[in-house]
């Protein structure tokens, strides 16, 4: 009888193992900030204190990490999350629902239905939301005296970001605030002169750095006390006329919000905590690769949803499978699907079809949520970065946050009742079906661990989840 012998990153077909090609993408991606010397010593002392005081949720170093892990609570929270959404709500770009006309920034901020939006996020089941404070031309959907001083008319009276944070907190959903620090290229020539953007080559960015640090100091002071705000997502800090003084900007943020994490689509260990790659392919997942760093991918229209008739053509089943690949790589933040409502915050493209697709994805996740969300990388079968969607393995694995279980997600059902996994690095005391709780038979045979389903238990066409209890 044929049975699938599977290895992360290797063939899932019956027969001998055949390695897959996995070309590296770009430069090395790193998702923690290394420390050394005295800082390293302090970090390990901090670890000991946290382990004693937070023993209900032990914090461990990733065994595959190159060094100590950032142990601040927000960094720990982001590292365990695997399922998010990226909302790019932008004045002057995001479309209004049919029959609505928005003429000013205040009208744009006032139109957003915060409570319905929060309810929708809960119905999708996301762990966290990226939400845009400003993008094009730095029109901020909230008050900020520093920004208003430098760029009159670029702030709203309503604190939309603050209201969204509060509404998401009630749903136990985290928030990362997208705030573009280097968007001066979208300003008018007069505005560029006002903030020093047009003089950057002459004065070494001094005036513009002063401007953006003042704005972020107030921004961070306002939202740093919100318990579910994790930090900030910085876009394109390295171009648009030259890089900013990012160590200074990070220092400004941490002075007001010491626990803030900083994410960006370009990584530099001196001031970015987590890399968050971005891209988009609306029609299919062909050519996508699961990485070991957070990934955000827009699904319909474009980032800002300037089309009131946007639809999503990728199926919830395929989105679920790709999410599991990101779980398998252990990527901090996992997968963040990018799509946005219209300006009212509650209407999603053509007949709410994009929202319905995301809600269908949430329903697929819900029954097995603890095996996908709030998990650690597997210590036995971790997927390599750059795992190609078109060559996805037959299974992926993740580890419970308390280090008691490993979860095996079988994505490609074998022909028989059993699947053989590569020999694990640990021993397991028991195995069972995650949903039905029925016993799964384990047998170590040479270099494989054979898992046999109970009589009458079928393989799922989408995902069969087996729970392995780690032997102590």
Top keywords for this entry?
disordered N terminus; TIM Barrel; 18 strands; alpha/beta; single chain; five-stranded antiparallel beta sheet; 472 residues; eight-stranded parallel beta barrel; 19% strand
Could you please describe the fold and organization of this structure?
This protein has 472 residues and is of the alpha/beta class. The chain folds into 2 domains: 72-371, TIM Barrel; 377-470, Golgi alpha-mannosidase II (Immunoglobulin-like, Sandwich). It has helices spanning 37-53, 73-80, 105-110, 114-124, 145-150, 160-170, 189-195, 200-203, 206-223, 246-256, 316-329, 353-365, and strands at residues 83-87, 128-134, 174-179, 229-234, 261-264, 274-280, 289-290, 294-298, 335-338, 375-377, 387-388, 395-400, 405-410, 418-422, 428-433, 441-445, 448-452, 464-470. The strands form 4 sheets. It has an 8-stranded parallel β-barrel. Strands 10-12-13-18-15 form a 5-stranded antiparallel sheet. Helix 10 (246-256) links the parallel strand 4 and strand 5 (261-264). Helix 9 runs parallel beside helix 10 (246-256) and helix 11 (316-329) packs across helix 12 (353-365). The longest helix has 18 residues, at 206-223. Residues 1-67 have low confidence and may be disordered.
């Amino acid at each position: 009888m044929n049975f699938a012998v599977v290895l992360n990153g290797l063939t899932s077909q019956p027969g001998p193992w055949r390695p897959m090609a996995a070309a590296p993408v770009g430069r090395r991606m790193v998702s923690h900030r290394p420390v050394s010397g005295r800082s390293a010593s302090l970090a390990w002392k901090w670890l000991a204190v946290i382990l004693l005081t937070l023993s209900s949720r032990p914090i461990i170093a990733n065994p595959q990490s190159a060094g100590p892990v950032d142990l601040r609570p927000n960094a720990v929270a982001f590292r365990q999350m695997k399922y998010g959404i990226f909302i790019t709500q932008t004045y002057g770009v995001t479309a209004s629902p049919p029959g609505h006309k928005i003429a000013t920034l205040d009208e744009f901020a006032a139109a957003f239905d915060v409570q319905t939006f929060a309810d929708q996020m809960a119905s999708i089941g996301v762990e966290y939301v990226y939400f845009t404070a400003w993008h094009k031309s730095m029109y901020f959907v909230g008050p900020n005296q520093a920004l208003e001083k430098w760029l009159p008319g670029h702030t709203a009276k309503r604190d939309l970001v603050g209201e969204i944070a509060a509404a998401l907190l009630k749903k136990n959903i985290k928030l990362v605030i997208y705030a573009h620090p280097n968007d001066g290229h979208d300003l008018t020539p007069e505005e560029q002169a006002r903030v020093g953007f047009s003089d950057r080559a002459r004065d070494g960015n001094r005036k513009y750095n002063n401007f953006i640090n003042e704005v972020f100091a107030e921004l961070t002071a306002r939202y740093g006390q919100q318990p579910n705000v994790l930090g900030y997502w910085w876009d394109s800090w390295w171009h648009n006329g030259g890089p900013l003084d990012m160590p200074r900007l990070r220092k400004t943020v941490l002075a007001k919000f010491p626990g803030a994490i900083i994410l960006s689509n370009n990584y530099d260990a001196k001031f970015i905590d987590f890399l968050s790659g971005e891209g988009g392919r609306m029609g299919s997942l062909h050519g996508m690769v699961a990485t070991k760093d957070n990934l955000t991918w827009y699904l319909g229209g474009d980032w800002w949803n300037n089309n009131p008739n946007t639809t999503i053509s990728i199926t919830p089943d395929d989105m679920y499978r790709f999410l599991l690949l990101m779980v398998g790589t252990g990527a901090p933040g996992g997968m963040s699907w990018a799509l946005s409502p219209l300006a009212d915050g509650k209407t999603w493209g053509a007949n709410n079809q994009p929202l319905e697709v995301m809600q269908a994805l949430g329903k697929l996740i819900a029954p097995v949520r603890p095996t996908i969300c709030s998990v650690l990388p597997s210590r036995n079968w971790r997927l390599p970065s750059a795992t190609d969607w078109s060559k996805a393995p037959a299974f992926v694995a993740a580890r419970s946050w308390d280090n008691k279980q490993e979860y095996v997600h079988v994505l490609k059902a074998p022909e028989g009742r059993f699947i053989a996994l590569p020999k694990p690095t640990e021993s397991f005391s028991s195995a069972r079906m995650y949903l039905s709780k029925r016993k799964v038979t384990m047998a170590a045979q040479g270099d494989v661990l054979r898992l046999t389903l109970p009589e009458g238990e079928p393989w799922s066409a989408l995902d069969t989840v087996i729970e392995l209890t780690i032997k102590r």
